[in-house]
Amino acid sequence: MKACVFLLFFPIYLLAQNPTPALKITPLTGDFYVYTTYNDYKGEPVPSNSLYALTDAGAILLDTPWDTAQCQPLLDSIRARHGKEVVFCLSTHFHADRTAGLDYFKARGIRTYSSCLTLDWCRREGEPQAQFCFAKDTTFRIGNLRFETFYPGEGHAPDNIVVWFPKEKILYGGCFIKSTESTGLGNLSHANPPVWLKAVKKTKRKYRKPRHIITGHFGWQGDGLRHTQALLKKHLP
Ligand SMILES: [Zn+2]
Q1: Is the pLDDT of residue 70 over 80?
Q2: How many whole angstroms from its chain centre is CA 37?
Q3: Which of 121, 173, 190, 212 is deepest in the core (most CB within 10 A)?
Q4: Interior CA angle at 45 toward 220 and 118, to 5°?
Q5: 12 pLDDT higher than 50
Q6: Using N-to-C axis directions, what is the helix angle for 224-235 and 193-206, rounded to 10°?
Q7: By the 8 A CB rule, do 146 and 136 touch?
Q8: Is 156 annotated as catalytic?
Q9: Would you put residue 204 in left (φ > 0), alpha (ψ -120 to 50) or beta?
Q10: How much distance in Å is there from the Cα of 235 to the middle of ligand 1?
């Protein structure tokens, strides 16, 4: 009887304490999943999107949980759902919503990467640092999966990169690309809006007709690149 009462009231208790899920996993397509964690930004819980993909050599992560309490639950979920260990993690710029979990993953033997520019910024700003860095745009092959990094120039952050999966035509934009749900450009503390606009145009030219464009925050439906361009045009004098 006690157990029944517990089961009955536990979800209500959770709802009352925590209105947002701690870790949300959304299937994207095939072996690709968007995972979302939440953190407080100006007193509001804000979702942060990252990605994991399954390969025959293990799972890979693009960006870490923003909420570091979700690092182990994420690893556990991937193991439970897919029977895979995470073997690789790449951070797409130096801000905490991309890098917060790097130390946790490094300590568990996961190979962590960022661009060398991002590594410099992490050092300067006291953010967790990846173990390995790459100096220019790089193609990675992990098991049967191939993807490439692209530095379009400064934008949301001086070091932001995007990641392209050519076979699946997935463009992972991180915070460089704004959600179609966003009405503003968000955190501009390290942004360079005029250069950002040029960088978005460059990215659009390079990656024609992506099937999915994953944004750093909020929903990723629709054309985030076009929306980012529109927001920047509105913002610039
Ligand atoms: Zn962000």
Answers
A1: yes
A2: 10
A3: 173
A4: 65
A5: no
A6: 150
A7: no
A8: yes
A9: alpha
A10: 18
Closest by Cα among 61, 120, 114 to 88: 61
Chain centre to alpha carbon of residue 233: 24
Indicate the pTM of the whole model. Answer: 0.91
C-alpha to C-alpha distance for 102 and 145, rounded to whole angstroms: 22
21-235 maps to which CATH number?
3.60.15.10
**Is 192 annotated as catalytic?**
no
Residue 186 has phi, psi (to 5 degrees) of 75, -145
Structure tokens at 121: 């910024």
- pLDDT per residue over 144-202, tens digit each? 999 999 999 999 999 999 999 999 999 999 999 999 999 999 999 999 999 999 999 99
What whole-number percentage of the chain has pLDDT above 90?
Answer: 89
95 is catalytic: yes
The answer to whether 46 and 175 are in contact (CB under 8 A) is: no
In this structure, how many other beta carbons lie within 10 angstroms of the beta carbon of residue 116?
A: 14
For the question of residue 18 being annotated catalytic, the response is no
Contact criterion met (CB below 8 Å) for 161 and 177: no
* Rounded-to-integer distance, Cα 87 and Cα 109, Å: 8
